[in-house]
Design a protein that fits this description.
Helices cover 30% and strands 24% of the residues. By secondary structure, it is α/β, with parallel strands linked by helices. The N terminus and C terminus are likely disordered.
Length: 408
């Protein structure tokens, strides 16, 4: 490179800078050597400081030969939202710090309507599903966690901060994707996401750059200059996810992210959410009433009903095999029930199959012999896996007091 100073551009932009506009040259970039005028003329333009750097030392090297000035396009306290993944911050005991903690959290509306009823749960880093029927209290819990609603009683903490006292700090560290369509139709996606980046505290240039990165990550980079009102439902959902990512959050709260999407759109959105959690190390809470979605992408699950905790555990624990044997025959299920009861196994009907408690290998022998003696066509014999939807079945006991659970 010619000129008084060598420059190194250390901008961390992963995309062409077309969203940032033309870059004005820094003062030191205007110091150039002019053709036909030689180094002396350039030194005259550069001034005394540059001339001093060009002086030759006794060893034959110029003083400024090894000096490089590093220019950054912007100065920000935070890294790019799509930068290296960050490991969870450990607690003193060595375990990752909880991202959400609630203790006897209660929220009552006039009526009286109890949206949250003494909810106590701890959520560790990772992707956590918040499941429950419509009206179970999922959206109310998210608004309390963001500091937008004050609880009637109890306490909630997000990223170690009190939701009632530190709501503004929590919202600065959290990305929120609302359930309902709340996007302005007459602005472009890049304008909207940039505006949300500015509201999160980013400088103008940084907000434009991160808006472009976020929109590219959700698959809208080529469509970013279209007005949001011309987008399909799936594209609008992606815009909402992009604006949640633009502020470099440590936690994402996604309220029904697949609402209104067709099966292909739901699959694409779920894959995108899973990639955000896996590649960028962002903890995510996904509120949904579709249990199949939660099983596909989540590590942990919090199930609530009428504002009360049903269960909180890992997905693996909730769907592991049980000590129950499922026997399915094409015909003669009633005969099989009677025969197994005669052999002392206490069977019970389940849909088109029969369930028997699995005590040991002798249970398999008894079932085999009963099916063979009756001459029934055996279709399936296996240990039954638990299913998440069983938590919400009407025949499950509901009168037990929920305990405090730790997720993760």
């Amino acid at each position: 490179m010619r000129g008084a100073l060598a420059l190194q551009d250390e901008s961390k932009i992963s995309l062409p800078g077309d969203d940032s506009g033309p870059r004005r040259a820094a003062p030191w970039e205007r110091i150039r050597s002019y053709p036909g005028r030689g180094r002396a003329a350039a030194d005259d333009q550069a001034g005394p400081a540059a001339r001093a750097l060009n002086e030759t030392t006794p060893s034959g090297r110029r003083r400024g030969q090894d000096l490089m000035i590093v220019r950054r396009r912007h100065v920000s306290a935070r890294p790019s939202p799509l930068a290296e993944p960050r490991p969870p911050r450990p607690e003193p005991g060595g375990h990752p710090a909880a991202v959400i903690e609630t203790t006897a959290l209660t929220k009552r509306y006039p009526g009286p309507v109890t949206a949250l009823d003494a909810l106590t749960v701890t959520v560790a880093p990772g992707i956590t599903g918040l499941v429950g029927a419509n009206g179970a209290g999922k959206s109310t819990l998210i608004k309390v966690l963001l500091g937008l609603l004050a609880p009637t009683s109890g306490q909630a903490r997000v990223l170690g901060r009190d939701c009632l006292r530190d709501g503004e700090q929590i919202r600065g560290l959290t990305g929120y994707m609302p359930e309902h369509d709340c996007l302005p139709p007459d602005v472009t996606a890049t304008e909207f996401v940039t505006h949300l980046g500015r509201m999160s505290g980013l400088p103008p240039t940084a907000a434009k750059e991160r808006a472009a990165e976020s929109l590219r990550h959700v698959g809208l980079y080529e469509e970013r200059y279209r007005q949001i009102g011309t987008y399909s439902t799936g594209m609008k959902q992606r815009v909402k996810l992009a604006q949640a990512l633009v502020g470099d959050p440590r936690l994402l709260l996604l309220d029904e992210p697949t609402v209104g999407l067709d099966p292909a759109g739901r699959t694409s959105m779920l894959e995108l959410i899973a990639r955000v959690g896996a590649e960028f190390g962002i903890s995510i809470v996904v509120a949904s009433h579709l249990l199949g979605e939660i099983e596909r992408i989540c590590d942990h699950l919090v199930a609530i009903d009428a504002g009360r905790l049903l269960r909180a555990d890992t997905i693996t624990s909730m769907t592991q095999v049980s000590q129950v044997l499922l026997i399915e025959v094409d015909e003669g299920a009633d005969q099989l029930l009677a025969e197994l009861a005669r052999r002392g196994l206490e069977p019970r009907p389940y849909q088109r199959a029969v369930l028997v408690r699995l005590d040991d290998d002798a249970t398999y022998d008894a079932v085999r012999d009963a099916v063979a003696d009756l001459g029934l066509p055996l279709n399936r014999l296996e240990q039954r896996r638990r299913r998440i939807e069983e938590l919400f079945r009407d025949d499950q006991p509901r009168d037990a007091e929920p305990e405090a659970f730790h997720v993760g």
